[in-house]
């Protein structure tokens, strides 16, 4: 139990008691910490947190002095134990990776309070905040439409938007009932019901040129249906999975891949020769092929044959870029 946890524990003990607690009992409940440590903790709480801790001479114990109305003392502001604070440290670092927008503006006061807690020198937490890093990779700007998309998603309103899809390089106008905002591989996506296609679709937020609410309530799709449609597919490509890829990784790469989660419904096993076999449901192979190619010679696509052929052609095309003139 560290200093932060002990301060939290002392507060919890004193707040719940009607009678003073002996120093020895307090030491025992603080996981048998030493008497000098208890003195230091009590002094820190009184000096820096204005805790009204008193010592009762007759009963020989510590207690919280009650205010004029009989109320008990509370630690100032937001207060968390060590595990909760560790989560907040990660939350604080994630904040730095977000661009300004609706969510950042609304949560900014909370972040300021978290920052105050992390920088509280008397509690020794400021150094911890410098020991966590969140690294982004290949992230794309969210664009000016993010606020409108986030607002419509949270308020459950239909959107009218101009969307420039990458695949067809075409600008289309869509009316969409937004269902979920998704942060995936350092980029934002919108899962929604497209009224133009009359089907569920995923949109890259950075490709939304403009968006505005129509004022109409969004059509709600049940969570179970959303999960069946989006979660069963591979990566950002939606649609219920209807194929299974069987991949075999070299013994060297197996030590890493065996601990990775490529898909919620994946299955894997080590083979007798030390290789690792991974089975992954998918529908659209594009993102899966990209993830396969990053393992180079350390992976083989066993099945299905069409996926194997796509990977072979991709490897041939890549090799052609390095062809040596004879």
Fold and architecture overview:
This protein is an alpha+beta fold. The protein folds into four domains: 3-64, Arc Repressor Mutant, subunit A (Orthogonal Bundle), CATH 1.10.10; 82-129; 146-222, SH3 type barrels (Roll); 243-320, Alpha-Beta Plaits (2-Layer Sandwich). It has eleven helices and eleven strands. The strands form three sheets. A five-stranded antiparallel beta sheet has the order 6-5-4-3-7, sandwiched between helices. It has a four-stranded antiparallel beta sheet with strand order 9-10-8-11. A hairpin with a 4-residue loop joins strand 3 (157-165) and strand 4 (170-184). Helix 4 packs across helix 5 (102-118).
- Estimate the mean pLDDT confidence: 83
- What separation lies between the terminal Cα atoms? 69 Å
Q: N-to-C SSE series?
A: HHHEEHHHHEEEEEHEHEEHEH
Q: What coarse outline follows from CA principal-axis ratios?
A: extended
Contiguous low-pLDDT stretches (5 residues minimum) are: none
Q: What is the architecture of the largest domain at the second tier of CATH?
A: 2-Layer Sandwich
Rg = 28 Å
Q: Secondary-structure blueprint of this entry?
A:
Layout lengths: L2 H14 L6 H7 L5 H14 L4 E4 L4 E4 L17 H16 L4 H17 L7 H4 L16 H10 L1 E9 L4 E15 L2 E8 L4 E6 L3 E10 L5 H9 L11 E7 L1 H7 L9 E4 L5 E7 L3 H8 L5 E5 L1 H16 L6
Antiparallel strand pairs: 1-2, 3-4, 3-7, 4-5, 5-6, 8-10, 8-11, 9-10
Helix pairs in contact: 4-5
Quick overview:
With 326 residues, the chain is an alpha+beta fold. It is built from 11 helices and 11 strands. It has 4 domains: 3-64, Arc Repressor Mutant, subunit A, CATH 1.10.10; 82-129; 146-222, Roll (SH3 type barrels); 243-320, Alpha-Beta Plaits.
């Amino acid at each position: 139990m560290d200093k932060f946890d002990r301060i939290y524990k002392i507060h919890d003990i004193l707040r719940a008691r009607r009678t003073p607690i002996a120093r020895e009992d307090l030491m025992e409940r603080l996981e048998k910490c030493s008497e000098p440590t208890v003195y230091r903790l009590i002094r820190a709480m009184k000096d820096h947190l204005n805790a009204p801790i008193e010592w009762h001479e007759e009963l020989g114990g510590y207690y919280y002095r009650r205010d004029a109305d009989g109320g008990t003392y509370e630690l100032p502001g937001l207060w968390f134990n060590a595990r909760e604070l560790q989560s907040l440290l990660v939350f604080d670092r994630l904040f730095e990776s977000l661009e300004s927008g609706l969510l950042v503006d609304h949560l900014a006061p909370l972040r300021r309070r978290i920052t105050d807690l992390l920088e509280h020198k008397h509690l020794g937490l400021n150094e911890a905040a410098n020991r966590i890093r969140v690294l982004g990779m290949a992230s794309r700007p969210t664009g000016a439409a993010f606020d409108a998309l986030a607002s419509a998603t949270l308020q459950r309103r239909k959107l009218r938007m101009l969307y420039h899809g990458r695949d067809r390089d075409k600008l289309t106008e869509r009316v969409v009932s937004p269902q979920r905002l998704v942060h995936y591989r350092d980029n934002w996506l919108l899962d929604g019901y497209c009224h133009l296609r009359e089907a569920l679709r995923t949109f890259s937020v950075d490709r939304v040129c403009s968006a505005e609410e129509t004022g109409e309530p969004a059509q709600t799709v049940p969570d179970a249906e959303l999960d069946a449609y989006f979660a069963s597919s591979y990566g950002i490509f939606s649609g219920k999975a209807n194929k299974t890829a069987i991949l075999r990784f070299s013994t060297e790469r197996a030590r890493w891949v065996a601990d990775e989660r490529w898909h919620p419904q994946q299955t894997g096993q080590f083979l007798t020769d030390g290789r690792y076999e991974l089975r992954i449901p998918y529908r659209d192979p594009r993102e899966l092929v990209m993830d396969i190619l990053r393992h180079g010679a350390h992976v083989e696509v066993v099945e299905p044959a069409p996926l194997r052929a796509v990977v072979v052609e991709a490897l041939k095309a890549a090799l052609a870029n390095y062809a040596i003139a004879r």
